[in-house]
Amino acid sequence: MDAPVLKKDQLDGRDGTYIVDKEIPETALESGTISPNGLKTTADGKTILIPQPSDDPNDPLNWSWVKKHTVFAALLPGCFLTDWVITWGSTLFEMQAKDWHMKVPAVAQSMSGSIFMQGPGGLLAVPLCQRYGRLPVLFWSQLLTLVFTIGATVSPDYASFTACRTLQGFFGAPPQVIGLSMIHDMFFFHERARKINIWAFSFLIGPYLGPFISAFIAEKLWWKENFGVLCGFYAFSVLMVICFGDETLYDRDGRRSISSSGFGRRTSLLLGIAGFRECAGRPTIWRVTKDQYSLLLRPYLLLPTFGFVTFITMWTIGIVSTVTHFVVPPPYLFSHTAVALLFLAPMLGTVAAEFWGHWFNDFLCNRYTKKHGGKYEPENRLWGVYPAWILGIIGLVVFGQSLQHHLHWIGVAFGWGLNCFSTLGTTVAISAYVLDVFPQHAALASSWINAFRVVGGFTVIYFQAKWAHHDGPAITFGSQAAIVAGAIISIVATQVYGKRWRARFPAPAAEN
Fold this sequence. Notes:
About 70% of the residues lie in helices and about 0% in strands. By secondary structure, it is mainly α. A two-stranded antiparallel sheet has the order 1-2. The protein folds into 2 domains: about 1-50, no CATH class; about 60-505, MFS general substrate transporter like domains (Growth Hormone, Chain: A, Up-down Bundle), CATH 1.20.1250. It is found in: Membrane.
């Protein structure tokens, strides 16, 4: 049997399709790494590597399994902490209100600026990481967020506290954006869905893990000491980047790549000095910014992100920011410990979605390629949205009805858990789709996923509590469920017309 003849655009997905699986002849090299037609494969010789790695050992695609996952692990604390740092204070509003002689809902608005600034922070990080490298953006992001976390801890009043919190959101956002690029830099097509699942899990469980820990600490420590513990978590993230982070940006067009070797070189990479010196020939800040905003003209990005992600995540963020308003007063009368334990519900929902996505997304991909002779269309990824979307609708209804009729707190927890399962399950499927259709613009596309996610979260804080107080939780969360149900039109349209849209509005030329 002759080896399949594959075109370059089919190997890297630039034409919107992938040839991800071909039967490799038994005459393939015994090493199982190169097929007779010169294409590199996995060690067992069964899967062609997409994209094809270079022969350079410094190519991140050629790094060892241990090296890849060590660098990936250095990214994850920053992803955990992006929303963790913002929602950490959601269980401390009552303490702060006493210090500042304010009402609790007014104190809660200190979160809104930090949520909103995650959008601009993520958008600004993209041109910098495309021009100067991923590592310095990640390092400065974590270091500066640590600085402003310390500032929030020692703030003497509401105004200075809110200013520091706002800057926390701005500087803490990059890990949620550049993570998709780092996955693209280091891992092959057949590995990416699971890595995206882990990456998305890390920043979507953060909003619940932070309050879970801070509520326990609040039993013993006042809010300032509580925030001091948060400083320790960010210091750990900075140390992880320093000790285990590495530059994954690699130039595949023949220009000089950024690589680390030696203490001085590594320090230069971390600070961005090396990236600044070696940026000649790389895309300019203006070009990346122009490409970044031009992506919004592509309906196959705008619809699944703004049209769906905004509405599936805004209610999740709204619940996190207001849940104590519902369960601390009568009839539930939750203590700090009880509030902390309630946050186990969204965490369990997110963990369940992690296990589900770890299996289901690969199942969808493998089934499609087997049925279509090894050819893969990115729109198939979006089938992973529907099961999680349905559970999200059910979760919002159960949550609202439980609060409205003062049902057992298990109903509140169960509804919340289903909603959070939905958030991760849908986000992973959409992120995988976006990476498939924009493989050379992963950070650019990812920044819009993050931006539209936080736009909804920023706005909902201002009206969630008032809405529930005016109309009752049943109508409030039932209406939110109806909005989520209607948002599925964006996904359906993308699946039906996505291939035609990709042909009509192709992605900009690759930057690096």
